[in-house]
Design goal:
Blueprint: H1 7-22, E1 27-34, E2 40-47, E3 63-68, E4 78-85, H2 88-98, H3 105-108, E5 139-144, E6 153-160, H4 167-182, E7 194-200, E8 221-222, E9 232-233, H5 236-245, E10 252-257, E11 269-273, H6 279-292, E12 337-343, E13 347-348, E14 355-361, E15 367-375, E16 383-387, E17 390-391, E18 405-411, E19 418-426, E20 436-445, E21 461-464, E22 470-473, H7 491-503, E23 508-515, E24 521-527
Parallel strand pairs: 6-7, 6-10, 10-11
Antiparallel strand pairs: 1-2, 1-4, 3-4, 5-7, 8-9, 12-20, 13-20, 14-19, 15-18, 15-20, 16-17, 16-19, 21-22, 23-24
The structure holds 2-acetamido-2-deoxy-beta-D-glucopyranose (7 copies).
């Protein structure tokens, strides 16, 4: 991005920019659709920031985006469909086409006395928010601003399980996450394109729900049981509407649960916790999915797509990052590895019986890696992990306490052909009910010539899905989309991040014409501070409450 602001680039940006000012901004229609019945509700409708792939209104072009609403089901019971276009008639036709129910009442306005009406005519289009759920009063606090929300991507953190007295804790927790995400790592390079907001709404009860029962909080975040895994929002529509009510201040919503341990979920909005070890891990990974349109890179998933995945070695999309020379016969060779075993048991351990799994090795690989993740096991004496009856001498990450963490045991040796066995033996009976085995996996690798695990090496590394289908990723272990403990994206994902963000952002924030001396005109532009206009990296500003930042809209208050 170093040569971004050469004269010709500025000129080009100006042309794009003036176009955007003279045409009005595009419209965005967001629908929430039930997956089974295709019945829709309108979440919001209104003007939105530019999208550089959109053609003018006369083209009738529509951009369609799809997401799932996080839910207890694997694939979601509800979807979000978002249409962008300059042509409201086409938008309207398309919405009717994709929904099984009749949405024509919307055009008539006056929806049960709800505060905003929507007209789909060419004139008088208002910002409409139509899903009829009460949104609690929201106090919007600025955490880190890089520019006007109309021309930035805005991430909004919503509080859940923070009482009125815990407001400062919420701001501290949010600031810690934002600092982690945007200082030195992950999103640091694109920070001039992002805004971060903390949105406080007090909860009647502190913390997140357990055993499938939400607490009295705005979004009702809860866990299924007591185990550390998914964090679901019982009041999912409130989350959708709270974000919609902020307009361009909420391109992506993050529901932050007031809980010290791992938990989260991704989709239309992201849920995460204030966990010191895991909060930022969950967040980076899920926001990666949200912004970049990348699939997973870890094994055992089901969604491998986007800039970081190919399913056929002749379709590699990241050849620009490969170091081999053009005539290298090995250029499109996959790195040699196999996954003889993987499981996501998410099981609570007990002292009566170890959790054991066996698997077959072909004996054809030079090296192997055992990966597992655990929670609720604070001390090394709490658990023994046996590999073929040999103690792997597991020790917890320092200060992990009851939180979840990931462990890799790498051996520079070949596994013999035949059956092998891994056992997790709980030693501390007091931990029954909390000690949990989340995931376990074995990978085998070829020799260094066959599998180049060097950090920074770009190639085609096999990834194995839940059904053991093979796709390929660009690096072995350099990307947080594969290893959530890594703080950074690989270059392929980072490139995808830039391209996604720049699609929605004009490099010119503003321009002015003024009169100068001698009847000259002075033409001034405010550029997005990239390249040589970057501000030196400084720690994120401390959050301060700004009373003027309360949203202009008044919503019915939440009755719980
Ligand atoms: C949707 O359909 C699937 C499969 O037919 C069914 O298992 C599920 O319960 C349905 N979900 C809802 C919310 O009706
Ligand atoms: C960022 O890097 C600087 C210099 O290496 C270091 O002093 C600072 O603590 C780092 N900040 C974070 C949040 O990691
Ligand atoms: C979700 O909220 C509804 C309505 O308040 C309530 O009846 C239900 O029990 C809640 N579900 C959970 C999982 O807490
Ligand atoms: C990969 O793509 C090539 C060229 O398009 C094709 O011949 C081959 O059958 C594909 N392989 C698989 C496994 O789909
Ligand atoms: C996946 O497939 C490979 C190759 O067919 C096989 O060697 C391996 O054992 C399989 N792994 C699992 C977990 O089924
Ligand atoms: C103990 O754990 C084993 C292995 O997960 C399981 O099969 C067994 O049902 C558990 N026993 C109890 C009493 O929970
Ligand atoms: C592995 O990759 C690194 C970095 O690309 C390269 O320097 C090294 O030569 C490679 N090793 C082998 C054995 O090919």
């Amino acid at each position: 991005m170093k040569t971004l602001l050469t004269t010709s680039t500025v000129a080009f940006a100006l042309v794009a920019s003036t176009g955007a000012y003279w045409n009005s901004r595009p419209y965005q229609l967001t629908l929430r659709r039930e997956t089974n019945t295709s019945s829709c509700d309108i979440v919001s409708f209104g003007e939105t920031q530019l999208h550089k792939s959109l053609l003018p209104a006369t083209s009738g072009q529509i951009i369609r985006q799809h997401n799932i609403v996080p839910s207890t089901g694997l694939l979601g019971d509800e979807e979000i469909i978002r249409f962008l276009s300059y042509n409201t008639n086409e938008l309207w036709l398309r919405a009717q086409f994709e929904c099984s129910n009749d949405l024509s009442f919307v055009g008539q306005g006056g929806l049960n006395g709800f505060e905003t009406q929507v007209s789909f005519g060419d004139q008088g289009v208002l910002h409409g928010i139509l899903l009829d759920v009460p949104v609690p009063p929201l106090e919007v606090v600025s955490l880190l601003q890089s520019g006007p929300s109309d021309n930035r991507i805005d991430l909004a953190f919503f509080s859940d399980g923070y009482t009125m007295r815990e407001r400062d804790k919420f701001l501290d927790d949010t600031m810690r996450l934002v600092t982690d995400l945007s200082t030195n790592q992950t999103f640091a390079s694109v920070r001039p394109l992002l805004n971060f907001w903390a949105v406080f709404s007090p909860s009647r009860e502190s913390g997140v729900g357990v055993n499938g029962k939400a607490k009295r909080t705005p979004f009702g975040l809860y866990r299924d049981g007591t185990e550390l895994r998914g964090l679901y929002a019982n009041n999912s529509d409130v989350a959708l509407m709270a974000c919609a009510s902020l307009g361009n201040k909420c391109n992506y919503a993050i529901l932050l649960g007031n809980d010290p341990l791992y938990g989260g979920l991704g989709g239309e909005y992201t849920t995460t916790t204030a966990s010191l070890a895991n909060g930022a891990l969950v967040l980076r990974h899920e926001i990666g999915h949200s912004i970049i349109d990348v699939g997973e890179e870890y094994d055992g998933g089901y969604a491998y797509f986007g800039v970081n995945a190919v399913h056929n070695l002749s379709d590699v999309t990241w050849t620009q990052w490969l170091e081999h020379k053009e005539d290298d016969a090995n250029m499109f060779r996959a790195e040699r590895s196999v996954m003889p075993m993987q499981a996501y048991p998410w099981t609570l351990l007990n002292t009566t019986q170890p959790w054991t799994i066996s698997f077959l090795s072909s004996g054809n690989y030079a090296r192997h890696l055992v990966k597992f993740s655990l929670s609720g096991l604070p001390d090394r004496d709490d658990l023994i992990v046996l590999f073929d009856k040999v103690d792997l001498r597991w020790a917890p990450r320092k200060d992990i306490g009851a939180d979840r963490w990931h462990y890799d045991v790498y051996e520079d040796t070949s596994l013999s052909a035949g059956v092998h066995e891994i056992s997790f033996v709980l030693k501390n009976g007091a931990l029954e009910g909390s000690a949990q085995l989340c995931s376990v996996e074995v990978l085998e690798y070829g020799t260094e010539a066959e599998f180049n695990a060097t950090l920074g090496h770009y190639s085609m590394f096999p990834t194995f899905s839940i059904d053991n289908d093979t796709s390929y990723r660009p690096t072995n272990d350099d990307c947080l989309m594969r290893s959530v403990t890594k703080p950074n994206f690989c270059k392929v994902c980072l490139e995808g991040l830039w391209l996604s963000l720049l699609k929605r952002i004009d490099l010119v924030d503003n321009f002015k014409i003024a009169c100068g001396r001698d009847r000259r005109r002075i033409f001034g532009v405010d550029l997005v501070p990239l390249a040589e206009f970057r501000e030196p990296l400084s720690p994120a500003r401390k959050a301060t409450a700004s009373p003027g930042r309360r949203t202009g809209k008044s919503f019915r208050s939440l009755r719980t």
